[in-house]
Amino acid sequence: MSNLAPQVIFIGLGVIAVVSALLVVVGRNLFHAAMFLGAYMLSIAGFYFLLDADLVGIMQVFVYVGGVIVMLLFGVMLTAQMTNVRMVSAVKQRGGTVLSVIVLVALLASIFKKTAFVISQATPAQNAISLVGKLFMTDYVLPFEVVSVLLLAALIGAIVVAREEGRPQ
Amino acid sequence: MSLESIPLSYYLILSAILFGIGLAGVLLRKNAVTILLSVEIMLNAANLNLVAFSRYITPAAASGQIFALFVMAIAAAEVAVGLALVLTIYRNVKSVNLDEFNLFKW
After folding, report:
1. Domain-located, residue A12
2. How far B101 CA lies from chain A's nearest CA (Å)?
């Protein structure tokens, strides 16, 4: 493996991520936008593998590409008749919005460029999956349980909100 | 091993760019489902930041990865509730254009 390989992978994944994110935002076809969001999330998973975060990368593919995209596609298809609705964005302050977003990104980039981060040279944890599992059950057990309650509440709430009213239970 | 070949600031700048794209989508688009997609772009950009910090600053402890996993769980809950709300409003208003979601205006 040559020394340049990580940089080539980084640039390739970065181009895929930026292009697919732009296509999600500017595209007019919602189905295509959801597909490009899947490409974007897969490229982010590639970054996780590049950063030695295997578990997070696998979870990204499972949860986002496998779950969230499918759910969003259901949303796109269930509101399908809106293709005949005028999709032209009629935001008045388009120029100002784009300008302020560009200024924000430039500001953040200059801050990141100037800040001297303390980079640790320690080797990453060899068995990250078991380490994360142990941390979930010890140090982070309270947030873990709170998240499980939150997921349950969100699931029940989504069903209650989306259920058609007036239909016999 | 990508520690020397790719500086940490590259990851941070890339995720700032992706966050900016998602933010522009939230601010500029009027379609409720597109805005949900753009929020997902922003959440993923923030997650990339967390994992990059975890790898470069504290590689031995996996705390950044745990944060990213929590963000994923909350993003999944957000998508479920957000889509349910959009579907319900679509059923009532027959539109996903945010300009027509004015039921609560006086």
Report:
1. yes
2. 14
In which domain, by residue range, is A43 found? 1-90
**CA B53, CA B64: separation in Å to the nearest integer?**
7
ipTM for the predicted complex comes to: 0.89
Reported confidence tier of residue B30, pLDDT bands at 50, 70, 90: confident
Residue A80 and residue A13 in one domain:
yes
Report yes or no on A152 lying in a domain: yes
Q: Domain B3-100 falls in which CATH fold?
A: Helix Hairpins (1.10.287)
How close does chain B come to A162, measured CA to CA in Å?
A: 5
- Mark whether A2 and A76 lie in a shared domain: yes
Q: What is the pTM of this model?
A: 0.88
Q: Are B10 and A10 in contact (CB under 8 A)?
A: yes
Handedness of CA A110, A27, A67, A153 (dihedral sign): positive
Asked if B52 lies within 8 A of A147 by C-beta distance, the reply is: no
Q: What is the pLDDT of residue A88?
A: 52
Residue A83 lies in a domain: yes
B16/A98 CB distance under 8 A? no
Please state the domain extents for chain B: 3-100
Count: domains in chain A:
2
Tell which of A90, A117, A135 closes a domain.
A90
Residue from B12, B39, B69 to probe the interface with A (highest A Cβ count within 10 Å): B69
Chain B residue numbers with beta carbons less than 8 Å from the beta carbon of A91 are: 27-28, 30
Name the least confident of B13-27, B76-90, B91-105: B91-105
**Which stretches of B1-106 are DSSP H helices?**
8-28, 32-56, 63-93
Distance between CA atoms of residues A144 and A138, nearest Å: 10
Note the Cα B55 to chain centre separation in Å. 21
